[in-house]
What we know:
mainly beta; CATH 2.40.50.140; five-stranded mixed β-barrel; 7 strands; globular; disordered N terminus
Amino acid sequence: MSAFERDPSGPSKIKDLNQYSRGVSVVVKVIMKTDVRTVTVRTDESQHRVSEALVADDTGAVYVSLWDDHIDQIQPDMILSIRNAYMNAFRGSMRMNIGRYGSFEVLESAPFDSVNLENNLSADRVEYEDPRKPSYGGQSGYGGRSSYGSGRRY
């Protein structure tokens, strides 16, 4: 299974996620939320409220980005079933995003007895490299030699 495919067999575990995971379904416990801040979106200059929630299952923890109404709907100690979320790297740290096409549901109980906060995926520094774009190697910029255009001409 590639980094982009989702596992159709059911919910994932946090330990199995990476920054390229898509179609993520997990059951997690909300541990805590950060303070709410206001951000301005560059594309349309609209303002939104943003917060993050640390969520965990029995295999690890990760921060979930919360926007606008989700901030008020998600509270510490809730058990959530998150569906069709995606992972990315934000400022060098892994984040889960519910996004436009994802959803969540509050559950009465968790399918695990305890949470694992030691394996916090958001605490590890990650470098963003888009595996869908080819790497051409070489150096670019002034004075450097680039591999682009250095081959035969046809």
